[in-house]
Structures are given as C-alpha cells and as structure tokens.
Amino acid sequence: MAELTEKEKIVFEFMKNKGKPVRPGDVAKATGIESKEVSKIIKSLREKGLVHSPKRCYYAPAEN
Q1: 3-state secondary structure the chain
Q2: Integer angstrom CA distances of residue 50 from 4, 34, 53
Q3: Quick one: 37 exposed, middle or buried, by C-beta within 10 A (0-12, 13-18, 19+)?
Q4: What is the rounded CA–CA span in Å between residue 46 and residue 32?
Q5: What is the pTM of this model?
Q6: What pLDDT is attached to residue 1?
Q7: Distance from C-alpha of 13 to C-alpha of 50, rounded to nearest angstrom
C-alpha cells in the first residue's frame, strides 16, 4: 500500500468505516479537516488508486 499522510489515513479510514459513498463536505464535517483540504486529500487518494467515484461528487474506497 502507498505511504499515506496522517490526514489521508483519517479520510480513508472514515470512508471505509462509513460503508457507503460520501461527499467531501461530509468527510470535512466528521473529521474536522477543512473542506478544501479534504478535496485535495481525496484527489491524492484517487491518484494512488485507493478511492473511486461511483457517482458525481461522491467518493468511496476502491474495491480491492
């Protein structure tokens, strides 16, 4: 697995625990990380292949 920053781990774990696609705003509210930063983290997780977007503006962990 790719090396993740502390905040990437927080966002990824939240998504895994949620068990359904989430919006960046929901992640921001739940984790206390600023919304813009959450969007950057999600982009980074997508580039690492860990997160995908099943529908517009929603994100979920990629199926392994």
Answers
A1: CCCCCHHHHHHHHHHHHHCCCECHHHHHHHHCCCHHHHHHHHHHHHHCCCEEEEECCEEEECCC
A2: 10, 21, 11
A3: middle
A4: 21
A5: 0.90
A6: 52
A7: 11
- Write down the mean pLDDT value for the chain: 94
Region 18-31 average pLDDT: 96
Paired residues of 22 in beta bridges? 59
Cβ atoms of 11 and 33 within 8 Å: the answer is yes
Q: How many CB atoms lie within 10 A of CB 7?
A: 15
Structural tokens at position 25: 């705003």
Average of per-residue pLDDT across 23-42: 97
Tokens standing for residue 62: 């990629």
